[in-house]
Write a structure and sequence with these properties.
Elements (H helix, E strand, L loop, with lengths): L6 H5 L6 E5 L11 E7 L2 E8 L7 H4 L5 H8 L7 H16 L5 H29 L4 H21 L8 E2 L2 E2 L7 H24 L2 H7 L7 H6 L4 H5 L7 H4 L20 H24 L19 E8 L4 E8 L7 E5 L1 H7 L1 H5 L4 H10 L10
Antiparallel strand pairs: 1-2, 2-3, 4-5, 6-7, 7-8
């Protein structure tokens, strides 16, 4: 946020300011990202984000692929939470085609989504440790993520990208032995989170590095179209799983954590609490798994009716949405994908102005951006 004594420099840059290039392969920028910082002493007067190094073009590629052929590519958006991308995309198609998903498939989808959310937040935990100068949280976070990945591998057959959720349901039913392994994870993971808290959350140095740093007021977070844990860190209890429930989320008991100060530390705490809540959802979904089929009847060649639709859900970083325009063919006429990381990077100049150089990577890391979803 703006520092009062530095505000004049922001408005009128001194003649002797220095431009410093960060990236495009800086190790702490969460992907192929570059920003040019205008520096006056140890303070940042402003930055210019530079994106586009991945050259993906997924939205244009969608126009030359059928709806089903395009589905594996959505995994590559936020690749830390690929199953949530699949879920949102398939739900958008299902809503437009009026396909009803069986209750058992919906519960399996929820288990997939929340386990994948835990995996993504564990990456955030480990990366935040590195950004604060601590290597141990990185090792701890990835060790626990491996256990969650083994569960997803049993269920979906993949480890990072899955292509498991289908239009109308899921590809496979829950395999033998999965429930017992999941129960072990449900019993042990809260104890590991307690270790994380003892090691890192209450660490005096970490709190000094993150409290009061990168403060985003509630109204500013809303104005910059922030969402997910970044928005909730600024005190807004907005979660699409609650306000627009899908896949039966209205049946599950969980809370929406929110911060009070809108700083880096609050955004960190929100994600730590979200892992606990995701585990609660997984436990409820697995404990009351409906009987029945896992796939609705769908046409061999999916053609959506003419029209347009925007559908969104709660991804690992915030709101992910698909805007689809159909002309009645098996290919989308146009597709636009809304990803939270793009909106958060758009606000980076506003948030970093007046901050110390040493805090820039911590502040950006607290947004938990992933460049695969920015360069669409």
């Amino acid at each position: 946020m703006f520092n009062e004594e530095f505000e004049t420099i922001v408005e009128d840059l001194p003649k002797d300011y220095m431009e410093v290039n960060f990236g495009p392969h800086h190790p702490s920028t969460h992907g192929v990202f570059r920003f040019i910082a205008k520096i006056d002493g140890e303070r940042i007067a402003g930055i210019e984000p530079v994106i586009g190094y991945l050259h993906r073009g997924l939205e244009k590629m969608a126009e030359s692929r059928t709806y089903i052929q395009f589905k594996p590519l959505v995994d590559r958006l936020d690749y830390t939470g690929a199953l949530l991308n699949e879920l949102c995309y398939c739900q958008a198609l299902e809503k437009m085609a009026e396909i009803e998903v069986p209750p058992r498939a919906q519960a399996i989808r929820v288990i997939c989504a929340e386990l994948n959310r835990i995996c993504a937040h564990l990456i955030f935990f480990g990366a935040m440790g590195l950004e604060a100068g601590a290597f141990t949280p990185f090792l701890f976070g990835f060790a626990e993520r491996e256990k969650a990945f083994q569960l997803l591998e049993m269920l979906a057959g993949g480890r990072l990208t899955f292509n498991f959720i289908t239009v109308g349901g899921v590809r496979e039913d829950i395999p033998a032995g999965f429930k017992s392994e999941l129960d072990k994870f449900i019993n042990t993971f809260p104890k590991r989170l307690k270790v994380f808290d003892d090691l890192f959350t209450g660490n005096e140095i970490f709190m000094q590095r993150t409290r009061g740093i990168g403060v985003i007021k509630t109204e500013d977070a809303i104005d910059w179209a922030m969402s997910g844990p970044t928005l909730r860190g600024s005190g807004v209890r907005f979660d699409i799983r609650k306000v627009e429930p899908y896949s039966g989320y209205e049946k599950y008991d969980f809370i929406i954590p929110a911060g009070k100060n809108g700083d880096v530390y609050d955004r960190y705490l929100v994600r730590m609490e979200e892992m606990k809540q995701s585990l609660r959802i997984v436990e409820q979904a697995a404990g009351d798994l409906p009987e029945g089929g896992i796939q609705a009847k769908t046409p061999k060649v999916l053609k959506l009716p003419e029209g347009e639709l925007y559908y969104r859900n709660e991804g690992t970083k915030g709101e992910i949405g698909f805007y689809i325009i159909s002309n009645g063919e098996k290919y989308p006429y146009r597709m636009k994908i809304r990803t939270p990381s793009f909106s958060h990077l758009s606000a980076l100049d506003f948030v970093l102005r007046g901050s110390y150089i040493a805090d820039a990577i911590l502040i950006m890391g607290s947004f938990d951006t992933v460049m695969g979803s920015v360069d669409r």
